[in-house]
Sequence to fold (440 residues):
Amino acid sequence: MKKYSEIKKIDYLGPQSKEPFAFKYYNPDEVILGKTMREHLKFALSYWHTIDYCGADMFGGSTEDKNFGETDPMAIYRKKADFAFELMDKLSIDYYCFHDVDIAPEGKTLKESLENFREMVDYLKELQEKHNKKLLWDTANNFGDKKFMAGAATSPNADIFAAAAAKVKACIDADIKLGGTSFVFWGGREGYDTLLNTDMALENDNLARFLTMARDYGRKKGFTGDFLLEPKPKEPTKHQYDFDAATCCNFLRKYNLMDDFRLNIEANHATLAMHEFNHELRTARINGVFGSIDANQGDMLLGWDTDEFPFNVHDAALAMYEILLEGGFKNGGLNFDAKTRRQSNTLEDILLAYITGMDTFALGLRIAVKMIDDGRLAEFVNNRYRSYREGIGKKIVEGTTDLEELASYAEAKSDFPVESGRQEYLEEVVNNIMFSVYAK
Ligand code: XUL
Ligand code: CO
Fold:
């Protein structure tokens, strides 16, 4: 196999190609349904997994080195940034995402850390202009440092709440400076391990106060994009307040945040909540809060957030189906919140992993377009609910009946037949569409 330095650009060579460093399905400038594939998919690189993560796990340290030959902390982070933009160029990725701590070294104090952060934001701005790249979103890492061990916005200690606010303020400023179109809150430690030490009501109210202040500050400073909550049911805390899409909707409604907040749905978080990825996307969509995607996948045999690059085409197709039905991404995009496996410890592996993830979603898009063109799925669902378009069903939907009328209607009937749901047939329809995606 070629070395990383020998690979200048990943080209689209089509499905027949056996070249490892080529796209088989992602053809960035191909127009599908009036938009190029790059506009449909809005792929983003995740800084934390790609530029910083070096393979450490609970049982062992790094298996790769991403210091790029430097020892001075700021010099390391400049080289990391250079690498990030070179990688995006090679892969034709237009967007990226980061936490504050991903892009700059931490100083001895919060103030010093934020100074380093601001200096690196200026450097990223230069690189963005030079490489014609955009920020999709940034976020504050309010979960890694020791002071956040009991939460950030939900910490029992008000000074920690303030420290978290300082970091979010700096990240909102950075988002505005770099032209980001979304801003993410993932509540890593915003939850609890035992109710014995937890004031759940105060913690929830404080989280809402925190998000409201962030919203107000962002809007005051001219941020017009979406604020995003990223649901996850557990890990690191046992109970997380933003458990899943439905829980987040309830929270946003309770605290009047539905107008400014949407959701960043992550595939592996859906699985941890015992939901399918497309269930979470559908829940966000029908509540009007679909925002963005963290694309990855878990491992059926491992019960935690393994953040693997997605290769499950079936799930990607069903996800892209939801996104097409939504009308595509607006302020969001498709961020690969995914890392190479610990044994895939070379720079070539990073390219290969992104190729796999991007081709998976390119196939997903191509199949989802066919699912819509084919029409059998939509037609089946439409027909299944036809009784709500006439007679008593129409009255139910229009709100022109009541319990008494329904009772006399039902009592007058002698039989209540329900049609088959035809699940197996529909599963075969999806396979049929999936595997004929390239058929003429
Ligand atoms: C953690 C996770 C985060 C968020 C951003 O599971 O998904 O990386 O995406 O904080
Ligand atoms: Co994520």
